[in-house]
Amino acid sequence: METVEDLALHKLPIRNLPRPLYEAPESEVAVRRIMGRVTTYVLKFLSDKYVEQGFEWLLPVVFSKSTDPLWPDPGASIEKRIRCEIYGEVVNTMTSMIVHKMIACSIAFPKLFTYSPNIRIEKRERAYSGVHAYEFTQLDFEVRDASSKDIRSFVEKVICELIRCLRRDMREELLKLGRYEDLAEFEPPFEVYDRAALLKSYGDQWEDKIKLSNRPLWITNIPREFYDFEDFESGFWDNYDLILPGYGEVLSGARREWEYDKLVRKMRRDGVSERDYALLLKLAKEGKLKPTAGAGIGVERLIQWIVGAKHIGEVQPFPKIPGVVYDL
Ligand code: AMP
Ligand code: MG
After folding, report:
1. How many domains does the chain have?
2. pLDDT: is 200 or 2 the higher one?
3. CB proximity list for 106: less than 8 A, separation 6 or greater
4. Is residue 298 domain-resident?
5. Within a domain: residue 2?
6. What is the CATH number of the domain that holds 59?
7. What is the per-residue pLDDT for 76?
8. 279-314 pLDDT per residue, tens
9. Is residue 324 part of a domain?
10. Model-level pTM?
11. Ligand 1, atom 1: nearest CA belongs to which residue?
12. pLDDT at residue 95 is higher than 60
């Protein structure tokens, strides 16, 4: 059996994992070409929607002293963090643009979005999860003074309209991909479930259970990173994940913390270095950080679900599969 050891990679059998375009047979390239057309449609649709709704389109950042700690998050599984030195300063590759979004939204752009490349060196056993890549893109957006409900309603409208338009304009492509029949149209609002209640009813495997639903749904109240809003009195986390039918999580978002005291208290509790977030804390202390809410949509995951690909690497021209490093 061909293993990655043969290829000096990392002890993962690469059979059945998506190959890069330049190694795929023509039949597979033909399928990828159709997925590419759907991708183009989705990117144009989403960008148009955000621009129409008055969002400013920011270009992304790749290096930064301050980035997402990805901790604590029940879903995180990071093998390694990429830091390097430039001009005598240590910078990280971006795990997400959360810090940049919160600051830009507070100071200059009350409605913003960006397509942000994220580097997350996921544990290599996630190669076969089918939904993890070590490089991917988030459609990341943030709105000043918005509530969680505002964000959820906006996302519901966008997703429902996207499916409706895809079925109208990409019928041929979806038929060829065998996805036209199954990609059902939905109407807002989507149901909202509390994570604690799901955990109680279904145990640790709750996500496997709820993704079998035939409608998209929201999960709220997820204990995670310091920047998601937590009500210290009730213990409720005002955040949300969107779960797509037959698939799983495609979006995470929240109303954000903006008050200095709460931010510091949560960082200390979580063991997150205050030094790594010195600027965010300084702005919060000066009252320059504003209440915002937003979310990040995993672009490759959304497309994977739309086209019905088994592995996220199939929708990446140059797959970035945990543990597998191709030439390109
Ligand atoms: P997060 O805030 O960490 O949940 O990331 C936002 C969104 O990015 C998630 O809801 C996923 O859709 C997507 N995402 C997160 N990690 C990965 C990954 N390793 N590969 C592909 N997409 C991811
Ligand atoms: Mg998440």
Report:
1. 1
2. 200
3. 144, 258, 283, 288, 289, 290, 292
4. yes
5. no
6. 3.30.930.10
7. 85
8. 999 999 999 999 999 999 999 999 999 999 999 999
9. no
10. 0.95
11. 252
12. yes
